Amino acid sequence: MSIEPTPKAPELEAVLEGLAGRSTAINKLTCVQVPIGCGKALQDSDFAKSTGGDGVFRDELSKREYTISGFCQDCQDKIFAPDEDDFRLTTEEIVGRLS
């Protein structure tokens, strides 16, 4: 498997690399380093293990997110998990938040 990091402006790339080793992690097929991510190899994530190592991402959107952020599926699931309050919102409140 070969995955390329999404290109960023050089200044932004320098910040992301300095904070979490984003491009280095993506080039090595690992999650970004602790404390930002978990630092695990993609094949060692809990999600990959639950699929027998065949699938390291849930879908194409998750794979694309990895090229942007460097977060493995496990970390994406933790970071982007819905807030409990989101389940208590009415349709009108949700639409209002999107406006």
Explain what this protein looks like in three dimensions.
The longest helix is centred in the first third of the chain and has 11 residues, at 10-20. It contains 6 helices and no strands. With 99 residues, it is mainly α. Helix 1 packs across helix 2. The mean pLDDT is 87. It has one domain (10-98). 48% of the residues lie in helices and 0% in strands. It starts with 9 loop residues before the first helix and ends with a helix. The chain is globular and about 45 Å long.
List the helices and strands and how they pair.
Layout: H1 10-20, H2 22-28, H3 46-50, H4 60-69, H5 73-79, H6 91-98
**What low-confidence regions span 5 or more consecutive residues with pLDDT below 50?**
none
Number of domains: 1
What overall form do the CA principal axes indicate?
globular
Order of secondary-structure elements: HHHHHH
Percent of residues in β-strands: under 5%
Classify the secondary structure makeup into a structural class: mainly alpha
What is the count of helical runs? 6
Taking the sheet with the most strands, its summary is: none
Total DSSP E strands:
0
Instruction: Determine the mean pLDDT.
Output: 87
Radius of gyration, taken over Cα atoms and rounded to an integer in Å? 16 Å
Helix content: 40-55%
Ends distance: 39 Å
